[in-house]
Specification:
The complex is a heterotrimer of chains A (378), B (269) and C (302).
Chain A: E1 26-35, E2 38-48, E3 53-57, H1 64-72, E4 79-84, E5 87-88, E6 99-102, H2 114-124, H3 129-142, H4 158-170, E7 176-180, H5 188-205, E8 208-213, H6 216-222, E9 225-230, E10 233-238, H7 240-245, H8 250-255, E11 260-270, E12 273-278, E13 283-286, H9 288-291, E14 299-302, E15 308-309, E16 318-329, E17 333-340, E18 345-351, E19 363-368, E20 373-376
Parallel strand pairs in A: 3-8, 3-9, 6-7, 7-8
Antiparallel strand pairs in A: 1-2, 1-4, 4-5, 9-10, 11-12, 11-14, 12-13, 14-20, 15-19, 16-17, 16-19, 17-18
Helix pairs in contact in A: 2-3, 2-4, 3-4
Chain B: H1 3-36, H2 54-61, H3 63-95, H4 99-114, H5 117-131, H6 137-160, H7 166-173, H8 178-207, H9 210-215, H10 223-233, H11 239-268
Chain C: H1 18-23, H2 30-59, H3 67-74, H4 76-109, H5 112-127, H6 130-141, H7 146-154, H8 167-191, H9 195-203, H10 208-236, H11 240-246, H12 253-263, H13 267-295
Helix pairs in contact in C: 2-13, 3-13, 4-8, 4-10, 5-8, 6-11, 8-10, 8-11, 9-10, 10-13, 12-13
The chains are: A alpha+beta (378), B mainly alpha (269), C mainly alpha (302).
Chain lengths: 378, 269, 302
């Protein structure tokens, strides 16, 4: 998987592409949705600059789809404002919002060909026939489906249908692109390919985009900003790096990547760094950054890939003896489930090891650096 | 042939015989009238002794019958338009309703099909008298549409059951208003059902007799009413010809309806 | 509803037409409500109001009175009509079940391809004008009709048989008209029976007859009940057949209503009769719907 680092602006121009400077910003303020007595989205707010991609990430029921639908106009917010390019759109009808939407099941028109589907929004805008043909061809070429214009949706594979849905959503150069679980219906291999492709396309066009997914890998790969949601409440908002390496709370730490959670009863200062002690007596050294300002922390997170096994662990400040209870060989990595003398359990990911994985029952040294031990909110 | 096979064959024949007999009972009378229509001898005979097109000629040359035919066609056409518009609108509205409300509203809209026609006939007649609608084409169209609309609602409704409604959201997000979305996205996909139910409505109106007996006037007699009169006062020999023509029209109208029904059931399967 | 203010002055609501304002009246279901309004109004004005008038007019002439209903309940002639209606409907139902079941059984036993074509024998007459079909039966059944002339011609009888203007002819014709109403549900029920059940029964020692009696027949009962009930309901309100084939001596409720309105001009009495027929039908139909919902297996046929 490749994470594409953000660039200063869209590289290369595609036909009909909007220059980065005109890409619309998206502001969401105090957005709320209440159904009867259930608060599906609570006081949500974020700002997205023109050309950026934000992912609404969360499990089902987190309110991410509802939020997207409110931005699109399919649902009316109980409270709050949505502004595109600085102009509020909450009062505006869906078909007047100039937003492109890629639906989870694509929602292609089965009675229209690929050309018919992609041309549809242009026909709504009363563009001349010749110009429509030109733009449709360009959009179809951009999603690499050139030559498929005459096909009907039922004659296409899932991946091809997704590309048609994408072409249809961008052909009219909307100010905002919304994607609802765009990779949901694809198999793993195709998903990984499309994540990169869609991201490249979005970058090239410079369209402000909001994507909804429950797949944290997808979020990490594609986004400029991730908004983690749980139960309708925003848990953390930040670039992928921040959200992954400095999770704000237990939920985010657990949802993105894997984490080992240690309940901590005491935190005390020791010179330049801090020492946290778990209920079972395990002490770990953390540096100030890892503490994230939480001196009264009760939860500490160590990511499995940051734990070293065996000899490499010996020179680390946080080093402990642990017995391997379970070994999982996953090909490119090995997962160990270990238990320390005190009874704290840790999952360790060992990457790129050569030779046979260590068997269960073996006692090994495990350890991690002070900067890899994070204090998070419960 | 093994004994088992022989028994099985006999058994199947035993099951088949009464079934075939009943089917024959159903379809034979309908078929019988066709050769009867070519009889010129003035009596009902299955095999015409003097075959000819006399009956048909007399039908098409009679100004009274032609007037009745014209009235029937007018009313049927009007009914088709009104019933289809009303029915499609109702089906669209019902499709997205929550279950409870939907059941109640659907029941109300289907009532005309459940209530005995004679009851509606008397009700309509008494109201029409007050508003001077008796004997008018408008009155007939309205009454027939009331009877036909429920069928449109059910037929189009079943097609909408398998419709993917996210397409409507997609269409709106692409800039199409509600009317455009209906004509360019929904209608093309329910085309067959709409056509089928329209033809059904036409057929229903063309054949309707009970209500029409009450609310048609002397000058606006439809074909069925005139047939009724002919039967009551003397069985006119040209009736087999008229019957055959009606059978032919019904078949013509029926085939698309059946095709549409097959298509929707295949889609939902 | 809107939170923080609008950045630029343009009020998006200015773009709302009448439609958009109307749609917002009922949140979430505005579209559906707008679409349902004309049809509901249509049915209300042209159907429900006239019906209400019938119900009303049977009780209020113009003061409240039950005299019309008394008349129905006490006059022997009218009681006879009601009795005949119920009896004829019941017998027709029995006949339709007796004849319809073998037909449905046969249709269920043939290949689907064949079935499609054979079903035309049921469907085409079903859609054909009932008036025409009744006329055809008249042409068959009357004294100088096809059947009598054939019988006399073959020497089977000397005198024409009275096949019309009596209960026999009426029952025969009504059964012919109403057979599809039993054939469809019974066929539906039969097709919904998994074929493995028949195999299971055979493997357990059941002969074909036994299998039929103990497996097929019981499982198809919901279809029989639903179809039978439907025939009964429709037969109660039947008008054309009693009028044409039954004749004046075989009056059923609907003919009596017709007579009261068009011959005698006794509206309140007609309304009362219609009211009885209406509510009887509605109650029976409600029973039918409950029956179908709960027990009839679906095979996608009807």
């Amino acid at each position: 998987m490749v994470h594409i680092p953000p660039q200063a602006g869209p590289a290369g121009a595609a036909p009909g592409q909007r220059p980065g400077g005109q890409a619309a910003s998206l502001d969401v303020e105090h957005l709320e949705k209440v159904y009867g007595r259930t608060r599906v989205v609570s006081d949500l707010g974020f700002s997205l600059r023109g050309g950026e991609l934000l992912t609404l990430l969360g499990p089902s029921g987190s309110g991410k789809t509802t939020t997207m639908r409110m931005i699109a106009g399919f649902e009316e917010p109980t409270r709050g404002d949505v502004r595109i390019g600085g102009v509020s759109v909450v009062e505006r009808e869906v078909h007047k919002r100039d937003i492109g939407v890629v639906f989870q099941q694509y929602a292609l028109f089965p009675h229209l060909t690929v050309f018919g589907n992609v041309a549809y929004p242009l026909q709504m805008r009363r563009i001349a026939k010749a110009e429509i043909a030109r733009r449709v061809e360009a959009a179809v070429a951009m999603v690499r489906l050139g030559g498929f214009e005459g096909r009907l949706p039922r004659e296409l594979s899932g991946g091809q249908q997704q590309r048609v849905a994408l072409a249809r959503a961008i052909v009219f150069e909307p100010r905002l692109l919304l994607m609802d679980e765009p990779m949901g219906a694809l198999d793993k291999r195709l998903r990984e390919l499309m994540q990169v492709e869609v991201r490249q396309l979005q970058r090239a066009l410079g369209i402000t985009t909001v994507s909804v997914t429950h797949d944290q890998v997808e979020a990490l790969v594609m986004s400029d900003l991730i908004a983690v949601l749980d139960g309708g409440v925003l848990q953390q908002l930040g670039p992928p790096l921040d959200v992954y390496q400095r999770p704000a709370n237990r939920f985010v730490a657990d949802f993105l990547g894997e984490s080992n959670l240690v309940e901590v009863t005491a935190v005390r200062r020791d010179g330049e760094s801090w020492i946290a002690t778990s209920r079972r007596g395990l002490s770990t050294r953390m540096d100030a950054q890892a503490l994230q300002g939480r001196e009264t922390a009760s939860l500490v997170v160590v990511r499995p890939e940051n734990i070293c096994v065996g000899e490499a662990a010996l020179d680390l400040p946080n080093c402990y003896l642990a017995e391997i209870r379970e070994t999982l060989y996953v090909g490119d990595l090995v997962k160990y489930r270990c238990v320390t003398e005190g009874g704290d359990e840790f999952v360790v990911k060992s990457l790129g090891a050569t030779g046979a994985p260590l068997p269960p029952g073996r006692t090994v040294s495990i350890g991690w650096r002070p900067e890899h031990c994070l204090a998070v909110a419960p | 042939m093994s004994r088992r096979k022989g028994l099985a064959r006999a058994g199947r024949a035993m099951v088949a015989a009464p079934g075939v007999a009943v089917l024959f009972f159903l379809v034979a009378p309908v078929l019988a009238v066709i050769p009867m229509s070519f009889s010129t001898s003035g009596i009902f005979e299955l095999i015409p002794s003097e075959p000819g097109l006399d009956q048909y000629r007399r039908f098409f040359e009679s100004p009274e019958w032609m007037r009745a035919l014209r009235t029937s066609l007018q009313v049927a056409l009007g009914t088709t338009v009104v019933a289809t518009v009303v029915g499609v609108s109702a089906a669209l509205g019902l499709a997205r309703m929550p279950k409870g409300a939907r059941a109640v509203l659907e029941a109300i809209l289907i009532l005309p099909r459940i209530v005995p026609t004679i009851v509606f006939a008397v009700a309509a007649y008494s109201v029409y008298l007050k508003f001077g609608l008796v004997g008018t084409v408008t009155g007939l169209v309205l009454a027939h549409s009331v009877l036909a609309a429920p069928f449109v609602v059910v037929f189009v409704g079943s097609a909408l059951r398998v419709f993917d409604w996210t397409q409507v959201e997609a269409s709106r997000s692409l800039g199409a208003g509600p009317t455009v979305t209906f004509f360019r996205v929904i209608l093309p996909q329910i085309r067959l059902s709409v056509l089928g139910s329209a033809l059904f409505a036409f057929n229903l109106s063309f054949d309707e007799v009970v209500v029409t007996l009450f609310i048609s006037g002397i000058h606006s007699k439809t074909l069925p009413v005139k047939v009724w009169d002919a039967i009551q006062y003397e069985i006119a020999p040209i009736l087999p010809a008229i019957s055959t023509l009606v059978i032919a029209t019904t078949l013509l109208l029926l085939v698309p309806v059946l095709l549409a029904a097959r298509r929707t059931s295949i889609a939902s399967n | 509803m809107t939170g923080a203010g609008h950045a630029t002055g343009l009020d998006p609501r200015a773009g709302w037409g009448v439609w958009e304002r109307a749609r917002r009246l009922i949140p979430g279901r505005g579209d559906s409500a707008l679409l349902l309004l004309p049809p509901l109004a249509f049915i209300f004005v042209l159907f429900l109001v006239p019906l209400a008038q019938v119900v009303w007019g049977s009780f209020f002439t113009p003061e409240f009175t039950l005299s019309q209903y008394e008349r129905i309940g006490t006059t022997p002639v009218y009681l006879q009509v009601m009795g005949r209606t119920a009896r004829v409907a019941a017998v027709t139902t029995a006949l339709c079940i007796l004849l319809g079941y073998p037909a449905a059984l046969y249709l269920a036993s043939v290949k689907p391809r064949t079935r499609q074509w054979l079903l035309l024998c049921v469907v085409v007459p079903f859609f054909l004008s009932m008036l025409i079909r009744n006329f055809i039966w008249m042409a068959l059944l009357q004294r100088s009709g096809l059947i009598n002339r054939t019988l006399i011609g073959w020497g089977v009888v000397d005198e024409p048989l009275p096949l019309m203007y009596n209960e026999f002819g009426m029952l025969l014709t009504m059964t012919n008209m109403l057979l599809p109403y039993t054939i469809f549900p019974i066929l539906s029920a039969l097709l919904a029976i998994p074929p493995e059940l028949r195999n299971a029964s055979a493997s357990l020692g059941g002969s074909p007859l036994r299998t039929f009696l103990r497996v097929t027949l019981p499982l198809s009962m919901p279809g029989v009940a639903a179809g039978g009930l439907l025939v009964f309901i429709v037969a109660l309100g039947f008008f054309i057949t009693p009028a044409l084939v039954g004749g004046p001596k075989q009056m059923m409720v609907s003919n009596l209503i017709d007579f009261s309105v068009r011959e005698v001009l006794n509206w309140p009495f007609a309304f009362a009769l219609a009211n009885v027929l209406l509510w009887g039908t509605l109650v029976l139909y409600y029973v039918h719907v409950r029956l179908v919902e709960s027990r009839l297996p679906r095979s996608g046929l009807v």
